[in-house]
Structures are given as structure tokens and as C-alpha cells.
Design brief:
about 190 residues, alpha/beta, globular
Length: about 190
């Protein structure tokens, strides 16, 4: 079973994030974590503000990807045919996320509730264990970045001049999420 702990952004958490964190994103077949599946996992380890290691895999969850999702993510059923099935994909993911799954490295995601709910549902279904402590860059952006007309990840990235060549792909979105968090941690005064 996966335990999820949303941490309060305070000075101690800010100090931890300045040193090390993992940015995370998923692409899915829909919006309901009980009925839909993750089809791509992306994560980037940041140390001292720099991306130093990445993880990315498509996941053959043995479900059909709708035309809408294919148009949004550019992930097709054909692309998933020869990709790792869930058991193998999550074994690789667990290896990359080892410290984070022990609660030792903080994780960030944009609109984290979405990504984390899918991850929890999958871990629980596959009977995998872990504990993730995380922050949500959507909520942090709303608090610390003033000026954009909305707080979607693409809007915040554009506002901060962060390029995303492949929006709605897990690795690229995770990388952008990490860059947004770096901006918040380094450029914005902490509001408690």
C-alpha cells in the first residue's frame, strides 16, 4: 500500500527542496484513477537546482487508449504494444524512486492530487508498498507566483519562460514541474 503525505511548505521543506527533490508526472487513459490506467511515468531527480537523473517509460497497461487521449498525449495504442507491462514498469520505477518511496526525498507534481491518486491506485492494485512525501507546484504557484491568468502548468511555464517542447508527456512535464519548483524555492520569499 502506498502512503501519501502532503507536506507543509515551511523553511525546513524549502531547505530540503533546495538540495534535492524528484519531480514527477503521469499520463493516463482518462481522469478516474479507479477505472483508468497510467500509460506513461516520468520523473526527474534534481540536485542543487539541476536535473541530474531522469526516468521515463511508457506502460502497456493492457487497455485501449482513446483517440482523445492519443491526440492530447501523442501516445498511441501501437506505441504501447511492445512497452513494459505494469509489473515490469513499476519495478523499474520503484528502483528509480527508491529514496522517495522511503520518504527520504521529497516529490513534487503539478496538481499533485491527480498524479498521486493514480499512483496510489496502481500501487495498491499491484500490492506495492511505499511512502511518498510531496508538495504540489499548482498550490505553491498560486501562492508565490502572481500575474499569470491561470495556474495550469503550461501557463506557469510560459510565464516563467520555461520551454516545454512536449507538453502532456510525462518526462517533459515532470522536468517543467521541477523547473517551476526551482523558481519558487530560489526566487520567492517564503510566506508562512
Amino acid at each position: 500500500m502506498l502512503e501519501l503525505i502532503k507536506v507543509k511548505y515551511d523553511q525546513d521543506i524549502k531547505n530540503q527542496l533546495e538540495k534535492r527533490f524528484i519531480a514527477f508526472d503521469v499520463e493516463t487513459t482518462g481522469l478516474n484513477p479507479k477505472e483508468e490506467r497510467i500509460i506513461e511515468l516520468g520523473a526527474v531527480l534534481f540536485e542543487n537546482g539541476q536535473a541530474v537523473q531522469k526516468f521515463n517509460t511508457l506502460v502497456n497497461a493492457e487497455v485501449e487508449v482513446s483517440e482523445f487521449i492519443s491526440n492530447l498525449t501523442h501516445i498511441t495504442n501501437e506505441m504501447l504494444e511492445n512497452q513494459p507491462r505494469e509489473e515490469k514498469a513499476y519495478k523499474m520505477f520503484q528502483e528509480f524512486m527508491k529514496e522517495a518511496l522511503q520518504g527520504e526525498v521529497l516529490v513534487c507534481a503539478h496538481n499533485a492530487k491527480f498524479d498521486m491518486s493514480f499512483l496510489k491506485e496502481t500501487f495498491d492494485r499491484l500490492k506495492l508498498d511505499g511512502k511518498i512525501c510531496y508538495v504540489d507546484t499548482l498550490q505553491l504557484s498560486r501562492k508565490y507566483i502572481h500575474g499569470p491568468y491561470n495556474y495550469k502548468q503550461g501557463t506557469i511555464a510560459h510565464y516563467l519562460h520555461i520551454k516545454n517542447e512536449n507538453a502532456h508527456r510525462a518526462y517533459d512535464d515532470a522536468y517543467v514541474c521541477g523547473q517551476i519548483l526551482n523558481h519558487i524555492v530560489k526566487e520567492r520569499a517564503l510566506k508562512l
